[in-house]
Amino acid sequence: MVLLVVLVLLALGYVGLFTSVLGVRTVEIAGTKTITAEEVRAAAAIPDGHPILRLSSADVAARVKALPVVESAEVDWSLPSTVTISVVERTPVAVFPAEDGTKLVDRSGTPYATVPAAPPGLPLLKLARIAPDDPTTLAAVGVLTALPEKLRTEVQVISAESPGDIRLALSGDREVRWGGTADSPRKAEVLLVLLTRQGSTYNVSSPDLPTVS
Q: pTM for this structure?
């Protein structure tokens, strides 16, 4: 009797792991906005009928995350035959002019897409280079994303030669000398007050000693 049970379990294991009885038949996609479900399925590259119990969710997620527009991907499966891939697409926070076109840049400093023209409402990054591992890029994007919405909509250009020399060009030909990323929340609070005063240059690099000129 014990031998029979063992044989049955082995047979079931073989069927589940090495045949298409519990194979992938449906790949559902969730979270797409600018890319299509078919693009995600193509990147996932899950063969039809692949044994679902042998599917590596991590490998599938890694292939989907290789799509430039995808920030993260999560893969789940349910018996007998369905795989669900949930993606989070990158959201642009700024643009960067490059030789091959205008790049959309997300909150991580990653340039992930090229567009014919900058979408309205996104500030321009005026930097020597842009990359998610570049300290100046990270500082500039970090300051931008730390701004309250009321200030962020005023920003037209973010320029920096180093992580400690960030400047913001606001609407109305106003410039903000921000400095480094330290005390950004405090600097934003001070700047909101300073902007109620007439001026063209607002210096909050030292938020305890701000100036307007």
A: 0.82
